UniProtKB/TrEMBL annotation:
Gene3D superfamilies: Endonuclease/exonuclease/phosphatase (3.60.10.10). It comes from the Eukaryota. This is Exo_endo_phos domain-containing protein.
Amino acid sequence: MVYAFNDTNERKVLWQRMNVLRTSIAGPWVMCGDFNTVLSPMERMGGRTTNEEMDDFRNCIEDCGLFDGYVTGCFFTWNNKQGPEMRVYSRLDRFLVNQHWFDSMPDAYAHFHNEGLFDHTPCTIQVRCADFKSRRSFKYFNMWSSVDEFLPCVAQTWKERIMGTKMFSVVKRLQHLKHPLKQLNKALFDDVENDVARANVFLDFVQQQLHSDPMNSDWIEKKREAAKTFCELKHASDNFLTEVQSALDE
């Protein structure tokens, strides 16, 4: 994972260290992250770059035997979030591999997602496809107790007759309470998560349009509004999760 300095001279130290590192690598090698410079002028829009910094980076990866692996998603991986006249786009983040990596994992690729609320685009590396089934852990939300249906739901479960010690009966009742509370959440609070998801989808759509037409002032403004809406909804959703985690930690 790479996070390069903004300063050209400081980046030269990284290039030197990469050259030293390559002498100890005989097998597959991948370097991914923010290299903070571009390889060609076409990888920057709205800003300036120097031949020196591009040449230094190009010479480094050639000496290391690295090249761009397969990538999908956004071409520009960073933008300065400014208005149309000051907007700058750059391809600062890369997925570099050597020939051993390419030969041993020919189907591997990196996907650069839309940036969301950040200035850089997140990157995920897909090495192989796998079918992972995740199971959500049960979480209690304080918001459930704010509705009239909550107490009857708990009372109904607490009426169950369970044989055993007091602690055992409490644990079993809490276990039995999970399902009705999940049903309560689905009936009354399901849109809390859905609103965040819908806002995220809309933000992703707006960013796709903006990547196709980077200097369009309408899309830039819509992106700001979509990001604000998503941020507010996500903040509200995170607050619920934070309250739950605090209760669990206590």
